[in-house]
Amino acid sequence: MTAPNAEPSGTAPELADGGPRFGGRPVHQRLLALAPALAAEVMVRLLDRLPDYHALPPEQLRGEITRQVERGIRAFVEVMRSGVLPGEPELARIRESAARRADEGVPLESVVGAYHLGAQLCAARLLAEAAPADLPDVATAQDRLLGYLRVVSCAVAAGYVQERQAALGDEQVSRQALLSRLLEGGDPRAAADRAGIRLPARYLVLSLAIGPHPDESRPGVNRSVAARRKLRRLRAELERRTDGVPLAALAADGGPVLLPDDSPAPAPDRTALAALLDRLARACGAELTAAATTAAPAEVADAARLAADVRRVAEATGRGPGPHLLDDVLVEYQLSRPGPARDALAAMLTPLAGRPELLDTLRAFLTTGLDRRRTAARLQVHPNTVDYRLRRAADLTGLDAVRGPDLLTLRAALAAHDTRAPSGARGTASPSC
């Protein structure tokens, strides 16, 4: 069983007889006599059953870790003798030891398991000597054993988690600094070195829009808590599904995501991207819409702005959840650029202002390949209603969706209308998220 720190165990104090007895002999005396052999056995079992300790240097195992095992056995002996659980000084040393193991990368389950392993071996040696007449003392010994493991396990977890939280905090700060540098432009190498991250040949740059989780609108459910849980699950799945270190600045409704991409392909793999988004959506329980492009680290800033624009165009033109590339919205993207032609095209639909049902019918009619029945099914109306709305839109705009010469103009007018920024936002820079 491991113990709190690297201090030498020292000379065994004289312990008064007390506590449970097996065969008339105090349990703690038997443990004290077996302590050297038990320490050696614990070390052998520890390396055999908890291979994570093999990652520690041999001199550390022979020195610090062995002394910790000896101290742990002595602390257990004292609990058996007096029934008094380890006090704050001992627990503080245990927390410090657990923090060192956390810093060394030993998993928490292995650190806790080492204490349990030592206690198990001590208990096995003692119980082998117990007779039926010793049953009350066996119960006392087991009670003290469980009490010892309870306080020690809590101390180990507290020290370990505190160290990991501090390390993760520093790691998160350095990752966010790298992400900011990449999104701002310039040379990111110094920020990558501080974060301990190898820059990939290129990044898959995503502009991600996250829909609401059903719990966010459920009566009686705290909306912010549901949103945080959604984001936590998404980030965890993103970490699991990404080779390398993903970088993201996500709010409840989305944000930029950079995924390392060392593949030779110069453009995003649509199939792989669709599969990733599907897994992320299932993990977080919300619809995801993403625009994607690839860029070398020094070009991420421009790529992030492009991805954000492509996503907004895809959303504005009703493309729905899933992956979207620039090639999917080339015409709409170009028509979304400010200029007199875009404004003139959008103005063609001004007569339909205040008639969203007519605009929705035009969009659906064009999206379904001019199929009135599919349009009716999508809008959940009768086909005759579709015919009426198309005629009404033609009367108001002079553009007939079923007349060939007007079709291209109508498509362009809808694209310009849907992608044009509100008047208060015109001329502003596009955010990178």
What does this structure look like?
Pfam families: HTH_30, RsbRD_N. This is PucR family transcriptional regulator. It comes from Kitasatospora phosalacinea. The chain is of the alpha+beta class. The protein has three domains: 147 residues, Orthogonal Bundle (Globin-like), CATH 1.10.490; 134 residues, 2-Layer Sandwich (Alpha-Beta Plaits), CATH 3.30.70.270; 89 residues, Orthogonal Bundle (Arc Repressor Mutant, subunit A), CATH 1.10.10. 59% of the residues lie in helices and 8% in strands. It contains 15 helices and seven strands. Strands 4-5-3-6-7 form a five-stranded mixed sheet. It has a two-stranded antiparallel ribbon with strand order 1-2. Strand 1 and strand 2 form a beta hairpin. Helix 3 crosses helix 5, helix 5 runs antiparallel to helix 6 and helix 11 crosses helix 15. The longest helix has 50 residues. The protein is elongated and about 105 Å long. The two termini are 51 Å apart. The N terminus and C terminus are likely disordered.
